[in-house]
Amino acid sequence: MKPDSFRRVDITRVSDSERTSNVDRAATEEPLEIRLHDRPFAVVMRTPGADRELAAGFLLSERVLRTPDDLGTIAYCTDPAADHPENIVNVTLAGNAAAELDRVFAARRNVTTNASCGMCGRLTIESLRVDGPPISSDWTISSSGIVAIPDRLREAQVVFDQTGGLHAAGLFSRDGQLEGIAEDVGRHNAVDKVVGRLLMQDQLPLSDHLLFVSGRTSFEIVQKAFLAGIPILAAVSAPSSLAIELAEACGVTLIGFLRGRSFNIYACPDRIVTS
């Protein structure tokens, strides 16, 4: 667990009208500036840790990167004059992505992306449309395998135990084993960290995996799963109507309200087998 993923804070605790001074732990939230070829591209509010993976996953979802071959290097800022260089990463693109750099900047407005926001930098709704065929993966998982997933993710949430204030994203194998986890104040960031790690290892598409996220499922979460090639996406809470529409259109099995022994399937139910 990174020591900067949470901070100790002084609090006043009230219980049964009694006030006491105490110390609590709060999840850290700091800005991460992502630069492309030393040019500012986006500022993402995140929990420090796995910043390079976060940048890679974020740029995949923004369609700056389309394949691992588009990624050159990701390095922390080395400018001694920069304020908080630990909060700045510079990404060097390669291949076709490098050639498209000017077009990428022309199509984007400068924004700060907050922890609850997925893709606030796009110019239009139309530019969010996915640009690939629907996922055709036909492997299945049992309903008993699905309901076991939340507990496995929760057991691995180390920083949540300290703060109670972080979202998590877990990447699971076909047999329900946890293969990767990330925690962050933003559930979008947690997904980007998990996907970005595998992108940097040249393991996309993740067609043999299931993604489970805490919180609700938005349009952006479904798109991130789709662009990573993940056929099954589950969440502890509700999906939005647009998330359901997108999941149906791009062939992603979408599960919501995964709690205890029950869940709802909102799109592409054939991948879930019940006995």
Spatial order of the strands in the main sheet? Answer: 10-9-11-12-13-14
The proportion of strand residues reads: 25-35%
CATH architecture of the largest domain: 3-Layer(aba) Sandwich
CATH level 3 topology of the largest domain? Cytidine Deaminase, domain 2
Please, what is the CATH homologous superfamily of the largest domain? Cytidine Deaminase, domain 2
Provide a descriptive summary of the structure in words.
With 275 residues, this protein is an alpha/beta fold. The protein folds into 2 domains: 30-128, Ubiquitin-like (UB roll); 141-273, 3-Layer(aba) Sandwich (Cytidine Deaminase, domain 2). The chain has helices at 51-61, 95-99, 101-106, 143-147, 149-155, 158-163, 187-200, 219-227, 241-250; strands spanning 6-15, 18-27, 30-36, 39-46, 71-76, 88-93, 112-113, 141-142, 167-172, 178-184, 210-213, 232-235, 253-259, 262-267, 272-273. The strands form 4 sheets. The chain has a 6-stranded mixed beta sheet with strand order 10-9-11-12-13-14, with helices on both faces. Helix 1 (51-61) packs across helix 7 (187-200), helix 7 runs parallel beside helix 8 and helix 8 packs parallel to helix 9. The longest helix has 14 residues, at 187-200. The model is unreliable at 118-130 (pLDDT under 50).
What does this entry show, briefly?
With 275 residues, this protein is of the alpha/beta class.
